[in-house]
Amino acid sequence: MRITEVRVRQVAVPRIYDTYCADPKHLKATINHGRSTYQIIELKTHDGLTGIGEVSDIAPRMDASSPAALQEILCGVLIDGDLRAWRTLYDGVDEALPKGWYPELRQLILFGVESALLDLIARAHGLPLYELLGGRCRQAASVSWVAYLRGDATLEDELQALEWEVAYQVGSGMKAFKLKVGEDHERDLARVRLARRIAGPGTYIKVDASGYWEEDEALSRLRDMARIGADACETPIRALSRPMSRDDPARIEGDADGIAEALAKVRDRSPIPIIEHVADLGDVFLTALIRHRAVDIVNVVPCQAGGLRRAKRLIHAAETAGIPALLGSTIELGPGTAASVHLAVASASVSVPSDLVGPGLLEGDVCTTPFSLEGGELSPFEGPGLGIELDEEKMSRWVG
Question: Which of 70, 181, 297, 319 has the most CB atoms within 10 Å of its CB?
């Protein structure tokens, strides 16, 4: 079976509110005028099958090429490509993408290409994608709602908005939350107290400092967070700030042992478990975290890993060291969310609630049947491959 057509289209979907994370480099904008941008990849075969992939949440900082330019690159590698050699096709795209492109953008594109290839293969065999990823080991993926910072809102306004946000999600069945924190400690504590009061004692609440704290302040911040009800903390130290991981991953990889050792010192004295991102950095970084026992939980974002195959490898590597995982998110649309859900239900050690909240943070989707977060879980749709189809009316509505 050979690929006969490649199509790339761009859409821009509004978020339900403007979001940002604590950011020591002051690159707070995460979206472009309230809209998240995506490129949707379709790979078609001569017998009418279509595989779908998503280049997820393309930020302005990435300076992405046009859909036409990406389509031209992909056509040069994939047209007439034999799906029996899909890994060779994937490697060919990796080689063809310009080396000077933004590091995270390259990974997002590779994720979209691999998802489309795997979707095609699974459809051709009449299998759901999770069967190609090791087989289903759970019915659904547990999800944590992510509450972002709200820019220049007053504390009163932010707490009022957060109160409604948490109460609504609890009412819909959500049993886990992640709160972005970091820039204003007293404000952060007020938000965590509020979330704990509304969500109740049995709800899992993790905080995400996005690497905002210096090492010497992280422990006092962690003790305060634990005292008022936080169950875990993600990315506490500045050496692993999210902007640095995105913009200059080689800098972290070059000092993987030193940074892992610094994180281990914090983890050893932290009253709550430490979570760290591993997908947007090289395998050497996860190896260092394991060697120094620097982390309790790994956050694997499949699209930042460059695809489901590498994401699965990272999950397995952590699992061999007894470290559970969660799947992170860049706020994916339906196709990207579907790929992550298939990975989650095929990975036994993805046992911590995952941040797959794109269906709730976006005002719309491009699939005929969108995901719903009601109940706090996501299950793959029935059918072969990803189990999704594009809705052309929705694609036209969100064209961007």
Answer: 181
